[in-house]
Amino acid sequence: MSFAELGLSDKVQQAVAAAGYTEPTPIQAQAIPHVLSRRDVLGIAQTGTGKTAAFTLPMLTLLESGRARARMPRTLILEPTRELAAQVEDNFDKYGINHRLSVALLIGGMSFGDQDAKITRGVDVLIATPGRLLDHFERGKLLLTGVELLVIDEADRMLDMGFIPDIERIVKLVPFTRQTLFFSATMPPEIQRLADAFLHNPVKVEVARAASTASTITQRLVATGREDYEKRETLRELIRNATDLQNAIVFCNRKRDVAVLHRSLQNHGFAAVALHGDMDQHARMAALDSFRTGEMPILVASDVAARGLDIPAVSHVFNYDIPHHAEDYVHRIGRTGRAGRSGQSFTLVSPGEEKSLAAIEKLIGQPVEWQGPTLAERPQSEGSSRRRSGRGEDRSRGRKVKVRSSDRGRGRAEEPREEAPVARAAQPPREERQPPREEQQSRRPRQERNERSSDRGYQGRSRRDEDTDEPVIGLGDHVPAFLMRPVTAKKAK
Ligand code: AMP
């Protein structure tokens, strides 16, 4: 099937051709004709299937006809996260190059002022997260009575994030006669109830069985130890030995772990950025941008931040933690192998996580292969003995030393890394890394001390930012600069 057969306008078809798409994806082929004929659509599709274009392209076509009403948006798209909303805006920019439409992005973390100004000038398309949309409505800045087409995207994610009451409120603010497109990757009973309530006689389009995984993804399990430092070491090995790694998302279950793992990877010389819900909007956008452009090929992320992100060519997904909810596994690994490309996913499994693994395998309806020994075959003492000695192999290699695991033991540990661009990109220029020794001594006495302590065989704790699991007592070796300043006592009167 070609795009020409779907009934899209010429302007839209030209934009699609300019984007380089030759054939509609299954969700596009199935949904677009129904959207154009003004039917409500219930779309069951994961991200990565091309579902954003499945609603954006017919929306643009429909917006070409009909009259723009002053200051009243005609279409409203609801997204669970700011990033997803920003991605939909990017889609409008890409597919709407031949249209002169005004699009407003109403998301948290950005100033109300700019958004207000845009609304006042009049917009055709609103893309919003539920909370911020309601904030604008309550401030009396927004009229939703002109909305003809409503899109509720990632409904199951909205449910996870507790947005359903907001969505129910918003739906009451838009006309009953509107057309509704409702997308969800899965259809648990609560989502089905909402679909029944919001949609009128919908056409159901489903591109993959709920909770199925794409066949383009090679999935592997990797047995590791229970301790964080063991898991970090396993992850580093996996990244170093990965074949065809272009870029990767590393998923953690907790925001705190995102931050810790991110810092650890950086300390080990990997070019990594972090993304989680507690970061402010600018930091999140900056992190995503550096990942998208390839400047930072590793993204360490939590589920909330990373679900649904449109990052076209992720070659690898690493589950640093096995997800608590089996469905998250499907979403996480769905970040790779998108739009027909191949991808690889690796899930770290440690003792005690067998139940979570069983739930995943049950959900996806197939066992996942182990890479290397299974959890039962893995020697249990390996990690703990290293912990007892307090010397991880990586520590002895130093913080910024970058070698592949195969280089170990060949006496090359101090050589700069030749391979693994994921690591190389993290490195500052050599001059910056290694100032002349005298300069180091005068500028950074603490580091010098620490280097010596590591030469001695790492007796005692040295650098606070080292990837170590030993607790720091007091300030450790670090003496804050203000304590070193000379103090002049005031003369007594
Ligand atoms: P989505 O499921 O909307 O997140 O889209 C996944 C990716 O597929 C995005 O990077 C789109 O740019 C891309 N895409 C969408 N439609 C097509 C198509 N017909 N052919 C090739 N790639 C597409």
UniProtKB/TrEMBL annotation:
Keywords: ATP-binding, Cytoplasm, Helicase, Hydrolase, Nucleotide-binding. Its EC number is 3.6.4.13. One of its GO terms (biological process) is ribosome assembly. It catalyses: ATP + H2O = ADP + phosphate + H(+). GO terms for molecular function: ATP binding; hydrolase activity; nucleic acid binding; RNA helicase activity. A motif (Q motif) lies at residues 1-29. The keyword ATP-binding applies. It comes from the Bacteria. It is an enzyme of class 3 (hydrolase). Residues 404-421, 429-455 have a biased composition (Basic and acidic residues). GO terms for cellular component: cytosol. It holds the Pfam family DEAD. Signal peptide: none annotated. Residues 1-29 form the DEAD-box RNA helicase Q domain. Residues 234-386 form the Helicase C-terminal domain. Residues 368-493 are annotated as: Disordered. CDD domains: DEADc, SF2_C_DEAD. Residues 32-205 form the Helicase ATP-binding domain. Belongs to the DEAD box helicase family. This is DEAD-box ATP-dependent RNA helicase RhpA.
